[in-house]
Design brief:
heterodimer; A: 204 residues; alpha+beta; five-stranded antiparallel beta sheet; B: alpha+beta; 10 strands; 24% strand; globular; Proteasome_alpha (chain A); proteasome (chain A); nucleus (chain A); Proteasome subunit beta (chain A); cytoplasm (chain A)
């Protein structure tokens, strides 16, 4: 089951997502990047129906880019989160998207922020959040160890604790995770945590 | 010769002009003037009221100044009924933005959006353009206090000081001479009233013939749009020496 979680540190936000693409009992690939860079200072970590996940996050990404082209200024994280929620809400009673999103961003004026947006268009601004079966474990770990104003080292340590918990306790635990971070210098990939690498095919 | 190209808005004349748009601007040139001034701590809008009669029922409604959203207001010059439609459109656009983004719409985006609507009436649909010019005054966190002027063609630009309506060219040149970049809101009010009094046709200037509105920040940091009451306006006119004092006792 897909695991996505994230938290806010002292001047950054970090999100982690599993990287397995699963179809029924088959694992298509175990290095699928589910955290999209929305713009220079925003990350969208998404889980759910794979077609919807890619379609919806790309739609949001392109609309955010269009806003910036049209108006010369980027959207704030809050505005992007509310826009995203609005799109989910509009589609909800006709043609819903089955995508859960953690939107992490950094704004110069307000610092780092994290938004929890679920598939039925719930929006919450949070310090820590998680989706999927993994959330049972990651939320519990974060509740125990999180405090506001964590440094990057402390936060990554907590992320690793959550990953270890998911790996050891979830029956169909995803083996690999990607961690991305956003701070004043922008949104970027931080690290991968792989316990299973896709085997390369030996040449004939 | 140009009469052949008058009737349809959606065609150019051979000289490359849109006559209907120009005629709309003519209509505004006969309307009551309005002046806007950008100061360090606010934007000032002053308007000349054309409809003054003792029989007029004055309520809280204004003739020249309108609030579009909590952080944007405008002054109008031209055909009032056209203005009402556009003001409503602008209000809806501002709320639609806030509905989507949960933030106030940046002032320039609001002006641009309304001007896109106006432009539509110069290119398709076969309808005449709106006979209104606007002065938009507002504040947002991107660019602070701003003043924009827009006309029936759908063109707009940002100004430090601008005038629309009757005698706007005279007012504009007066503003150009006397405006300084670092004026305060009080000085801006004074300058606006002075310029308006000089360019208005009427012989005496009383508070009944004017409207004054200001957009500024309260101490708590929120944007305030305030229309001056007739009593305070009379006092201001006296203070700045811009009016003949009332000859009869009230």
């Amino acid at each position: 089951m897909e695991c996505v979680f994230g938290l806010v540190g002292n001047d950054f936000a970090v999100v982690a997502a599993d990287t397995s693409a699963v179809h029924s009992i088959l694992v298509h690939k175990s290095n699928e990047d589910k955290i999209m860079i929305l713009d220079s200072h925003k990350l969208i970590a998404a889980s759910g129906e794979s077609g919807d996940r890619v379609q919806f996050t790309e739609y949001i990404q392109k609309n955010v880019a269009l806003y910036q082209f049209r108006n010369g200024i980027p959207l704030t994280t809050a505005a992007a989160a509310n826009f995203t929620r609005g799109e989910l809400a509009t589609a909800l009673r006709k043609n819903p998207y089955f995508v859960n999103i953690l939107l992490a961003g950094y704004d110069k004026e307000t610092g780092p922020s994290l938004y929890y947006i679920d598939y039925i268009a719930t929006l919450h601004k949070v310090d820590k959040g998680a989706f999927g079966y993994g959330s049972y474990f990651s939320l519990a770990m974060m509740d125990r160890h999180y405090h506001s104003g964590m440094t990057v080292e402390e936060a990554i340590d907590l992320v690793d604790k959550c990953i270890m918990e998911i790996r050891s306790r979830l029956v169909v635990a995803p083996p690999n995770f990607v961690i991305k971070i956003v701070d004043k210098d922008g949104a970027r990939e931080y690290a991968w945590r792989e316990s299973v690498k896709d085997a390369t095919v030996a040449s004939a | 010769m140009s009469r052949r190209y008058d009737s349809r808005t959606t065609i150019f004349s051979p000289e490359g002009r849109l006559y209907q748009v120009e005629y709309a601007m003519e209509a505004i040139g006969n309307a009551g003037s309005a002046i806007g001034l950008l100061s360090k701590d606010g934007v000032v809008l002053v308007g000349e009221k054309k409809v003054t009669s003792k029989l007029l029922q004055t309520s809280t409604s204004t003739e020249k100044m309108y609030k579009i959203d909590d952080h944007v207001a405008c002054a109008v010059a031209g055909i009032m009924s056209d203005a009402n439609i556009l003001i409503n459109t602008a209000r809806v656009q501002a709320q639609r933005y806030t509905f989507a983004y949960q933030e106030p719409m940046p002032v320039e985006q609001l002006v641009q959006s309304l001007c896109d609507t106006k432009q539509g009436y110069t290119q398709f649909g076969g309808l005449r353009p709106f006979g209104v010019s606007f002065l938009f005054a507002g504040w947002d966190k991107n660019y602070g206090f701003q003043l924009y002027m827009s006309d029936p063609s759908g063109n707009y630009s940002g100004w430090k000081a601008a005038a629309i309506g009757a005698n706007n060219q005279a007012a504009q040149s007066m503003l150009k001479q006397d405006y300084k970049d670092d004026i305060t809101r009080e000085e801006a009010v004074q300058l606006a009233l002075k310029v308006l009094s000089k360019t208005m046709d009427s012989t005496s200037l009383t508070s009944e013939k004017l409207e004054l509105a200001e957009v500024f920040l309260t101490p708590s940091g929120s944007v305030k749009y305030q229309v001056c009451s007739p009593e305070s306006l009379s006092k201001l006119l006296l203070k700045f020496g811009v009016t003949q004092p009332a000859t009869e006792a009230s």
